[in-house]
Amino acid sequence: MKPNARANFWIGLVVGAVVAAAVLFSVYYVPRKGLALGRDALGFGVVLPEAHGLHVGSPVLVSGIEAGEVTDVAIRELGAQGYRVLVDVEIFDGERYGALLTTASAYQVARSGLLGEMVLAISPGGGGQPVAGQLVDGVPPADFTHILDDISRISKRLADFMDGREAGDPNLRRALLDLQTAIRNVRDFTGNLPR
Fold this sequence. Notes:
Blueprint: H1 3-33, E1 42-48, E2 59-62, E3 65-77, E4 83-91, H2 94-97, E5 106-112, E6 117-123, E7 135-137, H3 144-162, H4 170-191
Helix pairs in contact: 3-4
């Protein structure tokens, strides 16, 4: 091999490695971190009875858009609540999402993606204080055993109604509302199952 050819080979190899690193950076880091250069992150804590599979690095979705990640998961004593799991969250672009997230927003652990990765799904909305630096209560993922218990209770109420209850009975209205909730929970549960 000639000296020029050898130098060209090494230059090509180095340039190729730099291009490969840039491609990997753009594929992983840019969408995940949002590259919010010069923008402050938004941090807060979510209180859960159990971790439900969340771990450091678990994605945080705001209205289905990956906007942050879990930075810490720890068991802490929270006064009258006793020992709870405290999940620290960092939203990469606090300027963009800060106005959307309040203490009244819904913070739920959910299963997402093809492999069923656990995520923290946030549904913005509601009144309340800005979430920055606050602790908010989280909702555990839908549990199939609770769904079956709900359906059993609803079917018993409907059977009681059909056995001679009067029209306009408030138990029927409550049973129908519970049935709607149970169906929504089944839909959410099955929608989050790996395909």
